[in-house]
Amino acid sequence: MDVQFDPQIVTIALAAAAIAKILVDMVRMSNRLPSWASPLLAVGFGIAAAFLLLVANGTIVNGQTAAQAMVAGILAAGAAVGATELQKHEPAAASATPLLFAPIEIAAPGPREGSGA
C-alpha cells in the first residue's frame, strides 16, 4: 500500500501556527496562566484554526478533513510553542557580542581633498 502525504497539511499547519501563536499570546496578555496552559491552548487553537482554514478553502467537511485538521493543528501548535520559546531566549542572544564592522565614512558634498578647489 502506497501512502501519500498531502502537502496541503503543511501549508495549513504553517498558516494555523501564526493564528494559534497570536491567539495564545493574546490570552496570555489578558490572563495569568500556568506554564502548562500555553501549549494546551496552542493545540486547541491550532486545530480550530486548521479546521477553519480547510473549510474556508472550500474543503468538504468529512472524516478526512477532520483528520487533516488534527494533524495540521498539532504541527501548528509545535511551531507556535517553538516560536514562543525562541522569544523567551531572545534577550540572551541580544546580549551576545555584536558583530563589528569596519566604520564607513560618508563624504559630505563639496570640494574634495587635494582637488585644489
Automatic annotation (TrEMBL):
It comes from the Bacteria. The chain crosses the membrane at residues 6-24, 36-60. The keyword Transmembrane applies. Keywords: Membrane, Transmembrane, Transmembrane helix. This is Holin. It comes from Candidatus Viridilinea halotolerans.
